[in-house]
């Protein structure tokens, strides 16, 4: 048997670009409504911004590690960054082609015209003049700079600027593009036909009045991406992480990771701009006339044409919970499974609301990874405090890009009497759980919710997640121990049922995979079936390679990046991976082991990534009740058989769609799941 020990691992950052390519495929798919295709372009752009702020930033920071340590770790950040920029450049070219050659003509077919300032009619010019004077002019902050004399100006992260050049002058100007409360787009008054322009074009149109004493020779849009933070601990831990941290010089917050600029900018000004901002050549990324395409999430739709967007899917009423006036009685009778966005998040909110108002409830404990803005759930928690309940709230203070909002809510809960616990150094709490204590006939009973998604009603409309309400004594007792760990009352939570990272998840997953290997060696049927967001952990991947070589059939659905290469002869030929990108963002994690026919299934918040196994508090629950097991398995197998939106992930990295075989039913899994749940809960 070949030993693939860590020799066949794809680079996570390069394979992440392969994932974003699949997002671009959705924008390129003419079967999708045009406004949905625009949203996929916005998702692609937003993903790429975060990628440069976090992942590329980390690679750039690694260059500052002592060369001897870099060599020891076989780290080659410059080479990887060059490979990344090459692929990003290709994808951005494709992005531009889709936008200009497909999206704009498709909008025009529906009498929606995206126009530039050169296209403004006299009437539109008059309209723009008034809008500019009232809403834009006072928000402009032009800065004239002499490259030869003046110090560098600071370019804000993810803020769009115009870089302006003048005739016969060494001076240039930087002009911010303020969006304020008016968004990125302006829709002209019209009847029958609809004309929309960027706010950028309104400013470009008025630029001569901003610099009335200069002759403008060029106006070029630029945007800087700066690092969000150094996430070394996403990849390295323990003593090694400390060595890496110690080897870094004092870093400058917000180090530039990319300057996106209009490719029409003359090369001499590109060079001057680069030097003025203190950037390297590798930091410069040519782009189009406009940046920040994530703003297309809010592109105006002034029509009433239904075919331009996805048809609404009405939330499916849960068969039992919809009719229940007392969730405690319903959940005590049997476990209840909910699925988002196919069902309403209100079931989660309603349970917390019931707990807040129930005289027999003594306490509520909840773990927040990303706290939503004010919502029914946060309101109910505040109501619980007002009603004298003991409320314990764990707040993850290091949830990327949501730190400020999380801490704000933590203070608000504290001010109202909650016990608030913030995250610990070097570890995140990523579990999506809550726990309710209730006194019934003098006995303390526990109720729990374990989910795969954040407690956020807005994201629940676009993320495919699962949640389990349970009163199972074994599960709720172990979940109580998780909260005791968070509260500092326990160091290690004993668990025979739950998988709790970083305590027993890796150990138990390893044991389950090794068992399947043993069964295969005995000539028995052996299978591992799993769905997750990302697959990165080297030890798990190595075990899966060994499982494949032993004859275990490994079938995976991985939405995002995977460092495992499937289908390699003698290494991973028994591993088959697909990725589903569709209307909603796949976010659930389900793990199924054949176990000699007595199948074992877990679901929860953890991917097979090192950080989820070793450096985050995660909770995965065993699926113990038969009706829940069947529902999960049915949904998983619908996704395994997707032949409309599933792409094959193998060494070719071509993102080939799974093809419909002759006589085979066309299965678009998200719609098939919706229909399955609708039939199940309305029967």
From TrEMBL:
Residue sites binding ATP per the record: 47, 463, 559, 587
Annotated positions binding Mg(2+): 370, 400
PTM entry text: An intermediate of this reaction is the autophosphorylated ppk in which a phosphate is covalently linked to a histidine residue through a N-P bond.
EC id: 2.7.4.1
Record has Kinase as a keyword: yes
One Pfam family it belongs to: PP_kinase_N
GO molecular function, one term: polyphosphate kinase activity
Record-linked CDD domains: PLDc_EcPPK1_C2_like
Protein purpose: Catalyzes the reversible transfer of the terminal phosphate of ATP to form a long-chain polyphosphate (polyP).
Record's protein name: Polyphosphate kinase
Native source species: Mesonia ostreae
Gene for this chain: ppk1
